[in-house]
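Changelog-adjacent note: as of this version, every example in the card shows the full chain rather than a window. The one below runs 430 residues end to end.
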Amino acid sequence: MSEPPSEIPSETAAGTRPDVLILGAGVIGLACAWYLLERGRRVTVIDRGRVGGGASHGNCGTLTPSHSAPLAMPGMVLKALRMMWRKDAPFHVAPRLDVELLGWLARFAGRCNWRDFHAVNRAKAQILTHSRGLIGDLVAGQGMDCGFAATGTLYVFREQQALDEFGWHLDSLRAVGIPVAERSGAQVRELEPCLRDEVIGGVFHPGDAQLRPDRYVAELARLVREAGGVIVEDRAVEDFAVSGSRIDGVVTTKGRYVADEIVFALGAWSPPLARRLDLRIPLQPGKGYSITYDRPALAPRIPLVLKEDSVCVTAWADGYRLGSTMEFAGYDETLNRVRLDALRRGAARYLREPEGPRVAEEWFGWRPMTWDDLPILGRSARWDNLSLATGHGMLGVSMSLASGQLVAELLAGATPTLDPVPYSPQRFHL
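Full-length structure tokens:
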């Protein structure tokens, strides 16, 4: 942290000082901006790179209340240990000495019990279901061109034992009111002719949807600008000017910014910058991968999860994507071809036409993973004018609008639409 300078210039529309400065122009930062602008706030968003250039860009674009179940559950530690040393496994930890990662893994392991599972399942269901409704309404109401379709999602299986053991998933969704239905092998192949005969059954989630994530983020940025918000790219945050318990300014590579309120929406990059404010945000960057193709002739009509191989498959009118995997390798910037090849091999086990005619993009990005699998949303206890909006794991797009709405309500002192307690920074003493 740096001492407050005598004068801190600020770049905003028409020279107007912003009420709120949002750090991060990914899907969460832009969602916060949209709801703050709706409440009449003057908003500036700054980003170290381009709009939506992080984890918002290359995911599979599914909106999934069906993903309410937390990653931590009984039996997960043993399952993870079996996979983690395989470089091509869906879950992989790169061998290295990392005290913070070891601590994160220990806290995660401590939550692999049914009591914590059910509590997180309820909290995630609340925010995912609400956000799914908000996204559908915003897309329709604002004419957002992002390939939104209320298709549902379909999990498919090749092994009867794996499908039988998946009963806990159906029970967990029904417990929180999320619709789910089992489907036979014949039924899933009728739904999806792209599937091979080896697929023996599946689980359908009618309340899920899909969109093209990069276009969704671009459309959010358009709405923010049209509502009077300012988005400034290529501005990496370097430091903070503070006075007492307030942040007086944000120092970037290209100038300093001031605002009444600061919102931290930096995704997986939150921890290193938060340390400059004496905050220890318990996030680990979970590296995910995807391959985007031109659309194959026999593409799925419904987003698929190929369960035994943990590969997600989404097709749009003009594209097709294989994605997923979770790699804990710090901020390693290597495009790991072993991980990409695992996506291809997995898809080939289930799909008649697993790849498109041309590779348009090979991608990786870091997801901001908390050990309790819940986002961090709300005011900081340490800094009077700081709010946090990070830690969404693999579900930033799915949780985006509910997160933005909640942050805007808390900044306004309004009664929140959702119970904010499960997501509060206070649980981590931030």
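Structural remarks: The domain at 74-97+149-209+283-370 is CATH 3.30.9.10 (D-Amino Acid Oxidase; Chain A, domain 2).
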